[in-house]
Amino acid sequence: MISFSQRYLWLFISLIGWGGLLISCQTAAPAEEPTTSANTPTAALSLDDLAATPLPTPITSPTFPPPPEPNPIDNQPPPTSPIIILSPTIPPSPSPTSPSAPDLRYLRVRVDETLDQFLQRDDRIVSLVITDLQTGQSISWNPDVAIAGMSLVKLPILLDAYRVMDGLPNIYYTGLISQVTSISSNYAANLLLSLSSGIDDPYVGTDVVTQSMRDLGLYNTFITAPYDSEPRPGRITTYITPANTRLDLNTRPDPNFQTTMGDMATVLELIYQCSQGTGQLLTDDIIGITQADCQQLLDMLTINQLDGFIKGGLPAGTKLAHKHGWIDDTHGNVGVVFTPGGDYLIAIALYQEIYLEWGVSSPTIETISALTYAHFNDPAPYPADMVLPPEPTPSPTPEITLPRAIVNGTQGFGLRLRDRPGGTEVGVLPEGSVVLLLDEEQQQLNGFTWQKIRDPQGLEGWASIDFLVTQ
Fold first, then answer.
1. With the CA atoms of 274, 275, 278 and 283 taken in that order, what torsion angle do they form, in degrees rounded to the nearest 10?
2. Quick one: which of 143, 132, 138, 62 has its CA closest to 101?
3. Which residues, including other chains, have CB under 8 Å from residue 129's CB and lie 6 or more apart?
4. Phi-psi map region of 3: left, alpha, beta (phi>0 left; psi -120 to 50 alpha)
5. How is 117-158 classified by DSSP, letter by letter?
6. Span 374-396, pLDDT tens digits
7. Under 8 Å between Cβ of 439 and 373
8. Of 27, 9, 3, 110, which is closest to residue 369 (Cα–Cα)?
9. Range from 89-93, 221-225, 341-345, 439-443 carrying the lowest mean pLDDT
10. Which among 54, 140, 399, 467 would be 20 to 30 A from 198, CA to CA?
11. What pTM was estimated for this model as a whole?
């Protein structure tokens, strides 16, 4: 028979054993979620198994937290749609390890081989700029062809937003900017246009951004209506530009949003220079943004979530600040790439009449991106016996001593050239055209002062000086 003390000893030992088991169960690591692959076979389930399996929880639209309390500079109320604020983790820019990259003409030979394959169809057009940001050397293919602005012109919208803000953006505007740079939100871009307007009107904002581009000398970039909107009655629907009046190359661009890869390359290069403490954005009193603005804008452009195009041709982890855009017939990407061999810029757009397949455009851009990265970083990117093509010999041009002027202020309609003051129209000069002021006496008629001018093609006529800006 077990004594009273033995019973308590047995009970004490049992409690210790069960307590240790409970502790081990509580501290053991949870089992990992089983993962399956589309290529991994799974055991077949019986009808009983299926009946015992609970139905999955239906997927519902995510519920976002309300936007933070705004503190906009114009007392603009916060939007009713969710604001996503992304805080990018920016890797430091690598220090260049080589004094200089090879001559860009070597890269031109390699890129030409890739473009030749793309241009096998005669309904395709390429517009491309590659710039060495250390030396300023650049190579280009049709940089001044008008293309649809798509989401590429959100880059000027972003730049202008920084211009009008007093200091770096607050939480509210940081949310809008991150939506534009990460997921290319049209809604957030329209709110930034409202900011630029100064009166909470995105239509006025399009005018402000367009004029900001003209202040930089970029006449081929314009916006006439917010995203997902039609032009208002009584407003102009398009601008006449030097790019969209070309007769040799025509991409039939969107009349409300237009740019060129030359303009986009210039805008991004100016932002890069500004982030380095130099360039027109810091020296031009009209712009009025700071080096900190430009650096933050570049950092925000690194959270772009597109993995193809330029990024697809880069090694993993390469820092890239870029903006993209595409519609049915045109795909484009512009970006600054930060590499150990030096920073460089790529701005590229591919066009195919009616419809351009992603499976055609992205591999083409990725190949050009990879070739460019190798040019700046591969210690031997080209064979030793590679021969450069000869430099093209420029045609001699006669020296012109006449004063010049730029057509400006026509509201996108262009300047009508007449055979005499107030006479018959002989042509229309697009906004931004450069003309020569001929040495003839000005005349007064119908309240206008008329000046005889000549365009670069030799067309002469009379025009009002109210629409001529002298250089």
1. 40
2. 132
3. 138, 139, 140, 143, 261, 262, 265, 345, 346, 347, 348
4. beta
5. HHTTSTTEEEEEEEEETTT--EEEESTT--EE-TTTTHHHHH
6. 999 998 888 888 888 777 666 56
7. no
8. 110
9. 89-93
10. 467
11. 0.68
Bridge partner residues of 141 (DSSP): 128
- Bridge partners, residue 138, by sequence: 131
Residues for the chain: how many in total?
471
pLDDT above 70 (res 320):
yes
The count of other CB atoms within 10 Å of the CB of residue 255 is 16
- Alpha carbon distance 170, 185 (integer Å): 19
Q: Tokens 């390699």 appear where?
A: 110
pLDDT given for residue 284 in this prediction: 75
> Which tokens sit at 464?
């009002």
pLDDT for 119-133, tens place per residue?
A: 999 999 999 999 999
Look-up of token digits 């049209």: 186
**Residue 19 Cα to chain centre, angstroms:** 63
pLDDT tens per residue, range 14-34: 444 444 433 343 444 333 333
Residue 137 and residue 390 in contact, taking contact as beta carbons nearer than 8 Å? no
In the chain, the amino acid numbered 5 is S
**Where do we find the tokens 């090694």?**
315
Which has the closest alpha carbon to 169: 36, 71, 89, 268? Answer: 71
CB 365 within 8 A of CB 311: no
Express the helix, strand and coil content of the chain in percent, nearest 5 each. 30, 15, 50
DSSP 8-state symbol, 418? E
Cα-based torsion angle of the residue sequence 177, 181, 186, 191 in order, rounded to the nearest 10 degrees: 10
Which residues are within 8 A (CB) of 287 and not within 5 positions of it... i.e. 6 or more apart?
Answer: 163, 212, 215, 216, 280, 281
Rounded to an integer, what is the distance from CA 6 to the centroid of its chain?
Answer: 83
Amino acid at 387: V
Residue 265 β-bridge partners: none
3-state secondary structure of 462: strand
Q: Which of 206, 248, 210 is nearest to 225 (CA)?
A: 206
Which residue matches tokens 């670069």? 456
**Alpha carbon distance 269, 273 (integer Å):** 6
